[in-house]
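Support request, please re-run this one:
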Amino acid sequence: MHFEILVEDQSGKVMLEILVRKIIGDRHTLKVIAYKGIGRVPTKRPDSGSVKHRMLLDNLPRLLNGYGKSWENYPAAVFVVCDLDDQCLKTFRQELQTILTNCMFKPTTRFCIAVEEGEAWFLGDIAAIKSAYPRAKNSVLSNYKNDSICGTWEHLADAIHQGGSADLCTKGWHAVGAEKSEWAKRISPHMNVAENCSPSFVYFRNKLAELAQKAG
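Re-run finished. Output below.
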């Protein structure tokens, strides 16, 4: 089976290129595509001439319809992975499902939402963080409740980055993005996908494994 994973940023791509292989193995093909931000669920489908930015949600209706059309009678699935941020989980899922429902051609699709942010999946595996960053602050890591709405990336930064999130924020969002990609590169190889404590990661893992096992 072919798996196409759509993520909202480069750090997500780095993380998932490592983690998805741990879940589905080597029997299936995989492509992870990073966008330049999450964007917004559109109120109407953009035509090809109006798509100016590589924002995930703005382009999602066109993308899903295109996958559905090109993947007819082909064993493939698309996973849309994005952060919840400060949205209502139930409402956000309904909005995403409505996009798929309104597509003329509907690919096999799973919507997987990191609660609150992708860094929650790292914080679901404290042992992996400590393997990648032996000097990580135990007092900060032990304070985290899985999938809580707490400023997740800032919490991780406070545990492993010298000067914490306050220092990173003074350097601008480009520096934050680069640091997030570095975390993904260093932490993901150590992660045990079978024992992650993040409920949103477990949901993602189970949906992937379910389709991979069905495909054989």
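The radius of gyration is 17 Å. The chain has two domains: 2-118+193-215, 119-190.
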